[in-house]
Amino acid sequence: QVQLVESGGGLVQAGESLRLSCAASGSVFKINAMGWYRQAPGKQRELVATITSGGSTNYADSVKGRFTISSDNAKNTVYLQMNSLKPEDTAVYYCNAVVVTAFNRYAVNRWGQGTQVTVSS
Question: Which of 73, 84, 19, 25 lies closest to 51, judged by CA?
Answer without folding.
Answer: 73
